[in-house]
Amino acid sequence: MLSFRIEQGKLKATSSPVPKLRLEWALVRVRLVGICNTDVELLHGYYNFRGVPGHEFVGTVEELSSVSAANKNKWLGRRVCGEINISCGALARRPACDFCRRGLKTHCARRTVLGIIGHPGAYAEYLTLPLENLHIVPDGVSDEQAVFVEPLAAACEILEQVDAKKIHEAAVLGDGKLAQLIARVLRTAIARVVMYGKYEKKLSLARRAGIAAKKVRGDTRDLKRVQDKFRLVVEATGSRTGLAFAQYMTEPRGTLVLKSTFHGAAPVETWPIVVKEITVVGSRCGPFAKAIALLRSGKIDPTPLITCTFPLLHAPAAIAFAQKSGVMKVVLKA
Hints:
By secondary structure, this protein is of the alpha/beta class. The protein has helices spanning about 35-45, 70-75, 100, 145, 150-160, 175-185, 200-210, 220-225, 240-250, 270-275, 290-295, 315-320; strands spanning about 1-5, 10-15, 25-35, 55-65, 80, 85, 110-115, 120, 125-130, 135, 170-175, 190-195, 210-215, 230-235, 250-260, 280, 305-310, 330-334. Strands 3, 4, 5, 9, 10, 17 and 18 form a seven-stranded mixed beta sheet that branches. Strands 13-12-11-14-15-16 form a six-stranded parallel beta sheet, with helices on both faces. A three-stranded mixed beta sheet has the order 6-7-8, with no helix packed on it. Strand 1 (about 1-5) and strand 2 (about 10-15) form a beta hairpin. The mean pLDDT is about 95.
């Protein structure tokens, strides 16, 4: 099969055998894969990554290993998306780690992560995942919508961590792909959501989805120019400077949710957290079922965020294009 590997900071085409299946795993033929900012960071050295990236996908189940007839009937030929954290139970690593015993499989101490840690990702014609990680894509949800399920689930996680009933206004810092999804999810539960970003074209996408949007410079000058404060602030800029601005905008005893992941360190002073008694929440993966339900209901349609679709064969050109200013979601079609 064709796949693309990150090696020494470059994305290179490779030809390799179709992967073999573990017990109760599925072979999925990839239909679409989204290029994520995390993939770009991996290319730049995040996690010292070597291998096949890609974790946002929709595909078709083509083969199953050691499953019941009922499961074969349920899954074979179905379109699916998949949770990316592979727990020690699915990897047949016994005994189960403490986190898995506590039901925290996304924090499994011995986990691998699709396209990120120890497991080949979706920049390929085929991938494998445990059956327990897969979710069926409903007929009313298109491939172009389904490819957003993983990041949309990450956006939904915020509402699992924060009591939205107590919040009337929220701020989302950043205007990129994840920030756009976060703002749309928050808007389903919070009366007013304001996005702060640097690019007018991206902010206009938010406005069309019923989200207030304000343009900022994205540097330290914003600390003097912006006077707004919020009980809930979500930092999703993907930049090193976003955290300081997020602390500044969080009101006393407010909650600051961190979503950015990037290679390197962020310069930050901790005194605002102490003085304002800010609750800081790290937020990562989230509930796929809720993300799929939002797509199926029509409450969220992320397809306007797709800037361009490339064939898988042109993955290096696609990931280069994805890093250009003003580009939103870039999708690979296998």
